[in-house]
Each structure stands twice: as C-alpha cells, then as structure tokens.
Amino acid sequence: MATQVVDHSALKVNQTGIIVTVLVAFFGSWAFYRPLLVLIPLLAVVLLLGTFAPQLALFKQFYFKVLKPLGIVKPRQVQDRPEPHNFAQGLGGVFLAISSALLLLPVDARTAVVTVSLGLAIALLVAVLAFVNLAFGYCLGCQIYFQLGKRGVIRAS
Amino acid sequence: MSSQLLALAVVGIVVLAAACLELFRSRRTRVKTLGTIAAPASDPYILYFTGDGCTVCHTHQEPALAKLGAVRIDKVDAIADRTLADRFNVYTLPTTVVMTPEGRALHVNYGYATAPKLERQLAEARSGAMQAATA
Question: What one-character-per-residue DSSP string does A39-85 give?
C-alpha cells in the first residue's frame, strides 16, 4: 500500500469551500433570500463529481488554478494516500444529496417544517465535520474508510 | 418555529451527544486498558498504532513522536495486528499507549497526542519506575 504525495492545502481549500457554501446557504436563506438553499444541491453535485472525476472538483481546481499559482495559499505536500480523502468527500456528497432531496421534497406545509429542518441539519453536520477536519485534522470519513477496510467491507487499497 | 432554528437545535443535540459518547467511550476504554501488560523494557516506551489510511498519523502524530528524541516507539499496524489493537481497544487512529518499563499501559491516547502531552506521560512513567526502583 504505497503512499503518494497529497497536497493538503487543496484538501483544506476544499473543506473551507464546503463550510462557506453551507453557511451561506443556511444563513442566507434564513435572513435574506430563501432560494440560496439551492447552493446545497449544487454543492452535493460538486462533491460527487469531484470524487469520481478529480478534474471536476471545483474547490480543488480553484486552488490549483488560482490560489496556488498566485501564491495566496502555499502548497503543503504530505506523504499520504488520496483514497480516504476522496471517500470522505464522496460521503459528504452523499449526505448533501440526501439533504437536498429532503429540502426539495414536494410535501405539504406541515411536513415541510420537518423535512426542511432535517435537510438543513444534515447539511450543517457536513459543514461541522468539514470544520473539525479543517481545524483539528480529524477526518471522520477517513476513519469510516479505515474501519470499513478493517472489516473487509471495502478494499482499502 | 423556523426550519433553521429547528435544524440548529438538531445539530446542537447531535454534536453534544457525539461529544458525550466520545468522552464516555474514551474513559471506559482507558479504564479497561490501563494496566494491560506487555513486554518489559529498560525504559518507558510508546506503542504507536497506525494504518495506511490514517492521514493524521502522517501529518501530525509522526512529527510529534519525532520530537520526543531517544524514546523507543513500537509502531503497530492496527489492521495487520488486530490482536494487539483489540487488546488496547484501538477504535481510532492514531492511538498511542505510554508503557512503563515493566510493560504496563500507563496512558492511552485515542486520537492525536501532542509531543508535550506524551513527554509529560513519559516523565510520569519514568518517575514511577524510579520510585519502584528505590522502594
């Protein structure tokens, strides 16, 4: 299981992007403009696309194409494996997709309070976990990847 | 009540519950594993549980261990050596176990442990060994 070099600055930019997008969607829709909630399904698409096609990972590409060349964010190369991070990103994307489904579900007004609240809560939890990873270096998705690999559920290559 | 307030309440409860659960599990496993016997050595040493999928191990824990200087560190692949990992209830990586020279687990750190924290624990293990030697 050979390690590769992973630029951790790209991961940090990705996590920052997730946090900012969810917070803008959450507080923006609350205080200013409700359609800002559409940012959550968009973020789900961005994360899921980025998991399967790294060249489509919006925040990482923003780092590689803009922030890094301009010297705004310094690269931090670490001997690491990209798979756990991709898995964590994919997991975040899946949860945001569930959140989006709950937010966009056509239900009556009374049920909508529950589904929208649940959808927002899931999106906020994704942001909280991204923040924990950004601030403390604890990656829950990576731990799940490790545990699933340990139990043979996935082939942790 | 607005959906946003309800969502904030749900997230607050989940985060609080997760923190309490983590604290409880950490304390319980610490109590269970303290005193676990392993091979004796001349000085305190550290069992360092890691794995290939552990990013924090590479980015944080290994630099912290490198700062400790001449301390014996037994690196254990938690996936390959499941028996030893299960013995210390390793459920997260990295996990570091500070062992006394007699081979007794003195401190178990689940998650990243800083160099100063490990140094304090090693000093405690050393002073315990000295007390035992002079007694």
Answer: HHHHHHHHHHHHHH-GGG-HHHHHIIIIITTTTSS---EEEE-HHHH
